[in-house]
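Researcher: I'd like a structural prediction for the single chain below. Treat it as a standalone chain; there are no partners to consider.
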Amino acid sequence: MALPALLLGGCSGDQSSLLSPLSQPGGETAPRVAAVQRTADREHERLLQAFGGEYRAPKTRAALDAIVVRLAKASEGRMGAYEITILNSPIVNAFALPNGRLYVTRGLLALANDTSEIASVMAHEIAHVTDRHASERAEMELETALVSQVVSQVLNDPATGAAVQARSKLSLARFSRQQEFAADQISVRNISRAGYDPYGAGRFLASLGRNTAFRAGRQSESDRKLDMLSSHPSTPERIAAVLGAARQIGAPGIGERDAAQWLAAIDGLAFGDDPADGIVRGRRYINSALRIAFSAPDGFELEAAREMVVGVSADGAQALRFDSVALRAGQTLESYVASGWIDGVTTDAVQSLTVAGLPAAVTSGQGTDWRFRLAAVQAGPRVYRFILAAKGRSDPERAMRAVLDSFRTLAPGEAQAVRAPQLRIVTAGAGDTPATMAARMAVQDRAQEQFLILNGLERGARLTPGAQYKIVSE
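Model: Treating it as a single chain, here is the predicted structure.
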């Protein structure tokens, strides 16, 4: 998705983005956390905030609990009590805290195809706990910070302090890499001892690699930083290592896989973005928490990021960005739009109008290579911002008018009725192929490729009549 850099990172001003709201008027605010608390509690809150809070799925949670109990008994380290939290995020990732708290996103759960694959993920995280990886990493980070502070402050040498800190970060990265490979090796041995197929780790990592390649270039920078491969070694290296470890245990075909049990546990799991964070359906964007919706112009493809929505036309000649801000005290909508919020873009006169019954203001602007239309719609303290950019001198005024005409607020009942797509487990018939399954998928982007990734299938794979597969359904 080739978007001008101005749309992705060039918005200026003192306003903070509010597209993902912390609280809603009339709703419950997040509970306050005591100032003094254990580090693990603070990390728990940070993870919940970064990954959409806790996702409650009793059936899936029960399956995970049963797997972790088996793994804990087979663990090479101490057997401890583990508490699992499912995070409400489509991003694929898993974590462990030193106190035994284990975290897994629903995006990762959707990618696993049997009990041995998800067991390999949980065993990997348990290995971080039993081998004190998280504790050692925290201790090293504290030591690094102390050394840097001593050099820069006590010795009055900030430049050397910065160099020490940079070298320490490289050391931490290598240390983390060693931990990840060690946890993979422990994981393969532990799932085998627990009775699972040791080759499950390799299959899951292969799916992870294909999913990452599919998503490449489509995630926002913030989402890429939260993705599993941002903090783990490259997938081919890991696959080679875990396959080698599995071969030392035995030939393929040993151990429990039980795909039916795992697929039953994730049947009905929400898939993709949470409607409260905003979801994309074709050209349409809907946010049930903000109770708004709009459509991109014809020919545009939208992508929802954590704090914005971006889109691009099929020919790459036009681009769209949507987000929201809060005005400063005493600032009017017109003065805000007149001030311009894109670095390097000069704006013209501001026009006031009404959009969906709300006050709005629009203007145009010119950058070096792009012509812009800017619009802001005010709803109480919140201001929704639209930017449309067109290459060269062509004016995107008509496209902006179409977007504003489509913008509307949702009634409470309408907002509550918005549901995320779900994973559904279906049985393949005699004539079913990946193409026929893809036709049943409620996704807009390369449905057949997504079907293959979700089910751990290579291109050209044939479906087995009577076997169960995952699809995405409304």
